[in-house]
Amino acid sequence: MHKLTKAEIMREVKDYIYITLGLISYSLGWAAFLLPYQITTGGTTGIGAIIYYATGFPIQWSYFIINAVLMTFAIRILGPKFSIKTTYAIFTLTFLLWLFQLVVNNYVEAPDMTPDGKPLLLGTGQDF
């Protein structure tokens, strides 16, 4: 087994910091600009939003369930080492979607605005 160097450890820590910052931006964009105006995007978060709009089932749980099923297949096919960062991102985004919906809904009164330019937070989050 190969011993990790300080540079390798710092690279991994940096990766997780960037993943977390991107997820914060993405989930804040969802909670503040997309969910209140019933706007959706693609992917599992978009499917979760459609389920939320139709049934009221929390977006973070449908996102988590869909991704758990997909990750089960990915781990079986590609192995667990491949999916460590993805699993971290799924758990973190599930938590952050819940947290920012709570914060935005309870503490921030959103003015009447159009969604023009608001997906900037989503795009920034996806670029990390």
Summarize the structure.
This protein has helices spanning 6-34, 43-55, 59-78, 84-107, 120-127. It has 128 residues and is mainly α.
Question: How would you describe this protein?
Answer:
InterPro entries: UPF0750_membrane, YitT. The chain crosses the membrane at residues 16-39, 59-79, 86-104. It is a multi-pass membrane protein. With 128 residues, this protein is mainly alpha-helical. It has one domain (11-127). The chain is 73% helix and 0% strand. It contains five helices and no strands. It has helices at 6-34, 43-55, 59-78, 84-107, 120-127. α1 packs antiparallel against α5 (120-127) and α2 runs antiparallel to α3. The longest helix has 29 residues, at 6-34. The radius of gyration is 16 Å and the shape is flat. The mean pLDDT is 86.
* Global shape: flat
**Could you give the distance between the termini?**
31 Å
Low-confidence runs: none
Q: Which sequence of SSEs, written as H and E, runs from N to C?
A: HHHHH
Measured by DSSP, the beta-strand proportion falls in under 5%
H/I helix tally:
5
Give the total of domains: 1
Tell me the helix content.
over 70%
Tell me the structural class: mainly alpha
State the total count of DSSP E strands.
0
Question: How much is the radius of gyration in Å?
Answer: 16 Å
Major sheet description: none
Membrane topology: Multi-pass membrane protein
Subcellular location: Cell membrane
Organism: Phocaeicola vulgatus
GO cellular component, one term: plasma membrane
